[in-house]
């Protein structure tokens, strides 16, 4: 069983007019990539800042790899990597000098080799001698990611890491995250663009107005609702397919080109039966997808509003 | 961690070198060499100059070097450090550095010594040229060494102040120091050896070293006294800077480890305030030796001793204001603490608020003031009560208004606080000037204590030893002290209302335990 690396208990953060994070408890284990989901202003960034110690919490505790911030700040900082949602870089330093600064600060052994590794991992090897001011926003984002990975932390907090990346960069980021997951790191990653997180998050925490309204394994979260969202695409006989679906009492039917999405109340056997009846009545099905473990669906069904 | 291993220092060094240091060094060299060439020209042919000796010429040219050094190292260094820190905080780099396992004081020392490196290089060039000037001018090496130590220690002291300013304010505060020096500088000439700020700036120490006069009445020529004990001015300056520097160093470390904390712990603020107030009174002690207003020393021809205590009273108020602003916790922090600890009434707020601090500061200042008049208290007690009462009402009003403005106006608190201070302290003087009546000026919050100490408010009792004392209108003074306490009470009501409002909001926001 994987060990808990990040344990948050009853965390509360107050701002003058608002409770930014309210009674939040969350555990991220080794090998978990936890998606922290919520609309703008839900408290995702504040949660991450509170975990890292940049934001003072009103109450609650945070333990990173067993280290408490109030008792062992130095130890905690060594095993925590935080990548903010913007790119703080020294514009007048080169990429490798920037990493060298943080390698010294984290007392990284064999600095030159580790800097080379991190630059390679973030595809910045060719830019190692370029000044940070010459890098594009996406490159700076990758450089900050490289800085975050530099001390090889056990727990990673990534706040909107893909916001400045191009499509290729996002794909590569996904690869890095999967690699980190395989290495047994605990990753807490926030985003309000849910498609960014799909595919590599195995747990999700949904926040709204400072509260954690849903948290758990993605597959379990999808099934907890009881209602399934299904995507169907066909090659022929769309009208006939719609008739069959209507007679099967599906809800929230949304039609699209050569397909529909709909809600279906029923267990696995019932949904299998529906597919079987479509096929036996001659509908040529090109796609049949259960969206229950889709983050977007989980989020929509969670009751959180104002998704941006 | 040594500076050579400190990543903050190394990065700042790299950044300074990358943006270029040669031009700055050449400018410093050109200024220094110009002054050196002036001295060489005098030594080669003294006829075209008004100097009486090579020493006098050397001092004049070296004085200019020192002036430029102070400008570069103290003002330039301060503004460089504070702007670097403010900019890095704005860019998020400060937080990135705070997230590393570096100790807070390593971060502080990295910026303290790293960001003003260009200014340090310029200072070294000027110091070397200054040494040549001193040697050519047949002045002693110790003279050069003492002045350089004073300049260096002042640069480090203000550098630390710059760190704290950069950590506290979001905008660079370079102009602030110029403003403070501009305001303070004229006062430094009123009583050079008896004014505290002449020692940590350190105007007196340098001027004393440059002094040619042998006149024992010349205040620049005497050694300062602390409670009657003669002290070396250079040593006094360095000791003062060191003592205050320790507080600043601790404050900077604290602010680095937790930016939400007040930079000064309240006990530190009280100790710092006490040290400064007592040293200031110690410097004045020799004038009256506890028998204010009877002068023990003969009247000095260079200054009017009657203005000394009022100036110190004003300075104490200003210092108290600064201490209250920096050492009192933000109401938001008290509110968070109330949520954390679960207290819901004003009784628990009081010891955490600025009001408690105001009472302690008043006690400290009142005891220090009492030292000047404890042997003559029998006939000066009314003056003393007016001055001490004025301190109490001033600090109370400031603490009430400070928290009221912070609670009520939040980000705009500073502006509203300045408005209140202007209305209560400055406006009556302006109106008094406009309508040419001193009665309006007496309404100022600053007025009663200053007037009582200036005019030696003695209840119409003739002074002993045949002193010709001015007699103030005691009814007006006492009336004003009373009226100010009424203002303090109104401020208390405003303060109380805002706290009650916040506490009721806090108790409704707190989740069930």
Radius of gyration of chain B, Cα only, in angstroms?
26 Å
How many domain units of chain B? 2
| Helix-strand makeup class of chain B | mainly alpha
Low-confidence stretches of chain B: 465-469
| SSE series of chain A | EEEHEEHEHHHEHEHEEHEHEEHEH
Which protein chains make the most extensive interface, counting residues with beta carbons within 8 Å of the other chain's beta carbons?
Answer: A-B, 34 and 32 residues
Per DSSP E runs of 2 or more residues, the count of β-strands of chain A stands at 14
On the 0 to 100 scale, the average pLDDT of chain B is 86
Which key phrases capture this entry?
heterodimer; A: 308 residues; alpha/beta; 6-stranded mixed sheet; 4-stranded antiparallel sheet; 11 helices; B: 513 residues; mainly alpha; 2 domains; two-stranded antiparallel ribbon; 21 helices; globular
What can you tell me about this protein's structure?
- The complex is a heterodimer of chains A (308) and B (513).
- Chain A has 308 residues and is an alpha/beta fold.
- Helices cover 35% and strands 30% of the residues of chain A.
- Chain A has helices at 44-52, 73-78, 95-105, 111-121, 137-149, 167-182, 194-197, 218-224, 238-247, 268-280, 295-302; strands spanning 4-15, 18-29, 33-37, 59-64, 67-68, 80-83, 155-159, 186-191, 203-208, 211-217, 227-234, 251-256, 259-265, 285-290.
- Chain A has a six-stranded mixed β-sheet, with helices on both faces. Chain A has a four-stranded antiparallel β-sheet with strand order 2-1-4-5. Chain A has a four-stranded antiparallel β-sheet with strand order 12-13-11-14.
- Chain B folds into two domains: 1-185; 260-270 and 294-513, no CATH class.
- Chain B is built from 21 helices and two strands.
- Chain B is 72% helix and 1% strand.
- The model of chain B is unreliable at 465-469 (pLDDT under 50).
- Chain B is globular, with a radius of gyration of 26 Å.
- Chain B has helices spanning 7-18, 22-44, 54-91, 93-98, 104-114, 117-136, 141-168, 174-187, 197-200, 203-210, 233-257, 266-288, 308-327, 331-341, 346-349, 354-373, 377-409, 413-434, 438-442, 447-454, 474-509; strands at residues 225-226, 229-230.
- In chain B, helix 13 (308-327) runs parallel beside helix 17.
- Chain B has a two-stranded antiparallel sheet.
- The chains are: A alpha/beta (308), B mainly alpha (513).
- The A-B interface holds A 12, 14, 16, 19, 22-23, 52-54, 56, 58-59, 73-75, 77-78, 80, 82, 84, 86, 88-90, 92-93, 97, 101-102, 104-107, 147 and B 5, 7-8, 10-11, 14-15, 18-19, 91-93, 95-103, 257-258, 260, 332, 335-336, 339-340, 410, 509, 511.
